[in-house]
Amino acid sequence: MSRIGKSPVSVPKGVKASVEGGSLKVEGPLGKLEHAIHPAVSVQVDGAAGEIRVSRNGDHRVARSVHGLTRALAANMVEGVSKGYEKKLEIVGVGYLAAIQKNTLQLRVGFANELQVPIPAGLTVACPDQTHIHIKGIDKQLVGQFAAEVRALRKPEPYKGKGIRYENEQVRRKAGKAVTK
Q: Domain spanning 3-82: which superfamily?
């Protein structure tokens, strides 16, 4: 049995969870999230105990693989509507900067043109200064995906370390050309 799947998800105060029509709905102070439940597993919400339990229907391969996944997604939903998720990016390089205009993230990261990245609905993106980007939201997947897409526009290069990186990310540096006699 899945070690992750068999442990219950505790639902904190102020968060409501329900199963309706084959989908798990979680509502909290920060917003609402919904996830379709795979038919190989079943989800029960115990309001009195304040927990969500995931069990699988049968012991076939798909049920085993979806069991832990469904529990992890439920836990991420509960944490997202109660606390939220945040990713921080930092821009390193001379002349590299970021700004927000309306619903667009503008990046100047060494290309001839400025990059315009539309901000998805459900995310809050802030630039406290020109070299930092803070991405916040209730959906863990959406926050991580958008952060990865922004980082992929100009990955940190190994020689000078210029580019967009996660905050506190260690970039492996390479030595330049060795000068010979």
A: Ribosomal protein L6 (3.90.930.12)
